[in-house]
């Protein structure tokens, strides 16, 4: 069964929400080297492998701004041989805990005001 390029891209986007800090899913395997989520560089989906991710260290500028991205090497389907970069949006309205502040880093940025997340 062949997966359409649109579905592959959607699954890469979904996958980025489940890796790195603040991931939606937790594999409870901290010894694997990942902060949380479904793994780190070298892991991936049936049709692609994660080859790079943004910084996930606590206190890093990207983490403080609520930024996360992962790059995948596509291994099969119509997109085989290409690299896909998937950016994760923020979901932290009040800025509590990790992941920046949507009001400051997202909403004001949409008005054209520069902030730490836009500079990533």
In short:
With 120 residues, the protein is of the alpha+beta class. It contains 3 helices and 4 strands, in the order H-E-E-H-E-E-H.
How would you explain this protein's 3D organization?
The protein is of the alpha+beta class. It has one domain. It contains three helices and four strands. The chain has helices at 5-16, 61-65, 102-110, and strands at 44-45, 48-53, 68-74, 83-88. A four-stranded antiparallel sheet has the order 1-2-3-4, with helices on one face. A hairpin with a 2-residue loop joins strand 1 (44-45) and strand 2 (48-53). The longest helix has 12 residues, at 5-16. The radius of gyration is 15 Å and the shape is globular. It starts with a helix and ends in a 10-residue tail after the last helix.
> Which percent range fits the helix content?
10-25%
Beta fraction of the residues?
15-25%
User: Using DSSP, what is the number of strands?
Assistant: 4
Number of domains: 1
Provide the structure class.
alpha+beta
What quaternary form is this? single chain
Q: How many DSSP H or I helices?
A: 3
Strand order of the largest sheet: 1-2-3-4
Secondary structure elements and their pairing?
Elements lengths: L4 H12 L27 E2 L2 E6 L7 H5 L2 E7 L8 E6 L13 H9 L10
Antiparallel strand pairs: 1-2, 2-3, 3-4
Main features:
four-stranded antiparallel β-sheet; 120 residues; alpha+beta; globular; single chain
